[in-house]
Amino acid sequence: MRNHGTREGKHGPATQAVHAGQPEPRPGAPVVAPIVRSSTFHWAGPEDGIDLLYSRYGNNPNQESVAARVAALEGTDDALALASGMAAISMTLLAAAGQGDHIVASRHLYGATWALLSKEFPRRGITTTFVDPGDPGAWDQAVTPDTRVVLVELPTNPALRVFDIEPACRAARGVGAILAADVTFATPMNIRAAEHGVDAVIHSATKYLGGHSDLIAGVVAGSRGLIRRVAKMMKLYGGSIDPQTAWLLERGIRTLPARMERHNRSALALAEWFTGVPGVRRVIHPGLPDHPDHVLATRMLNGYGGMVSIVLDGGGAAADRFSAALRLAAPAPSLGGVETLVSQPRHTSHVDLSPSERDELGIPDGFVRISVGLEDVADLKADFSRAVAAATRPAAAVTA
Ligand SMILES: *Cc1c(COP(=O)(O)O)cnc(C)c1O
Q: How far apart are CA 348 and CA 120, in angstroms?
């Protein structure tokens, strides 16, 4: 019997993050559950009265307990942990859509999700219509009787746009499709997506849920029926999470509420500070009043998140000098860890687009995405001050 927290509706999210999914305590039991490395478990036949346990099936104790913790945080009946965020996305979509089916997805998607939908799924007879999520009428126009999934992502990467989920939800309901949302950037602390009508709540747990840039994992949360179908795909395609990684992910989730509070606070403080730094042309953060989705983000989210994007004067060359001058923040293409990371989409997620295509998505050259970590904000400001100075005054020898 596992403690599911929200089922009883008794505990707040910080308590659930620490306790949900753990076995009921008994004298002598370890406070921290052990890692169960066994790939297989004693089982002679159905007369044993339990399900066959096998770690590819996702029913190893570590896999089950991290899933129960995620379900408690999301307020869903069930959840499943998988080997990566992309495993969570692809298995969810394949559980819902097959040959001849149709998907409607936001145009603002993580690069690999976009490639899966536009390049890979057509080979399997699954087509996708991409829509502008900022146009509330677009979802209704795009869905057809064959639509099985409507997919959104928020906040988006790297422009940090926040779109209303409601029109996408209504369109999905109208044709009997499921609504799936990749809310990696928001985490369950900043949005409980199921409460907004999302059927499949998906995270790259590699990012904030794990939180320490030391694992690759994904999760999906939803109804028992949906999770059973996703688990079936996972068993067949083999994208199960390793028990050791499941254990490490569960350890990360224990501190998620505390980390997100600080990520939210530090990112907002840095965003406000960047707006007064000469050489920074634009600062993009949903918590800033000039962000196009500020009002909606304030209404929908419990926090604006740990990401800040800036656009430097001087284009790509300035952004390269900025990255090279950093001593504390590190250039690396991930996010959500305790350490501050910066990346340029033109070198990473959006490398395949032309400069004008990137411009259209709100990612001009000179754009730098910052995943604000848990360091002291004063130290980050000092590091970024020096880097912006180096970016905007290339000729001068800039020292600390
Ligand atoms: C990183 C990321 C993914 C992919 O997750 P992996 O764990 O790398 O497979 C999907 N969606 C978003 C928004 C991400 O940031």
A: 20
User: Is any ligand 1 atom within 6 A of the Cβ of residue 184?
Assistant: yes
For atom 6 of ligand 1, the residue with the nearest CA is 85
Which residue CA neighbors atom 8 of ligand 1 most closely? 85
Which are the catalytic amino acids? 56, 110, 182, 207
Q: Tokens 């639509």 correspond to what residue?
A: 147
Would strands 330-331 and 341-343 be described as parallel, antiparallel, or unpaired? parallel
CB of 59 sitting under 6 A from ligand 1? no
Element housing 131 (H / E): strand 127-131
pLDDT digits (tens, 9 = 90+) for 322-374: 999 999 999 999 999 999 999 999 998 888 888 998 888 889 999 999 999 99
- Residues in a beta bridge with 369: 309, 343
pLDDT tens-place string over residues 250-292:
999 999 999 999 999 999 999 999 999 999 999 999 999 999 9
28: which residues sit within 8 A by CB, 6+ positions away?
none
